[in-house]
What we know:
The chain is an alpha+beta fold.
Amino acid sequence: MADHQAVNAPFEHRPLPPEECGGEDGWYTWNMVDRTRFNTSVLGEMRVRKEGQHCRLRMFPERRHTNLVDNIHGAVTLGLIDIALFAAMHINGSGEAGPSVTVELSTQFVGGGDPARPLDAVSEIVRETGRMLFLRGFATQPREDGGEDIIASYSGIVRKMRSRG
């Protein structure tokens, strides 16, 4: 795993014990240190895990994340996807997630999200250059049978930047 976390990183990234993650290994926290910032304030507690060439970012929907038909609101899914681009940059890329910016994000919704299940954004890096990161992925929800329901597919471009100072 790439270790780009500086001493004053804007996010918390520490290992979680399996007993806090339903017995699953490999999860880390992925939350803003300043809990009043968008990521944690709006989406709540998140965790991240490297899965081969993929990065899985997970959130836990609550009623506040639903729309009028009791599905996960599309804006919540988009927010998770956007954050997932930066998690993938940190976990599998060489960029500094904090100061970088989203240049483009294309999303296709293919199903409604169930607020009773975790929502994951599973991203992979398609190509990385010195200043750009090209990614693609799926927003999914785990099923009891071990499979996943796809909620959306996406692709995005991130402009890598360096911290000021």
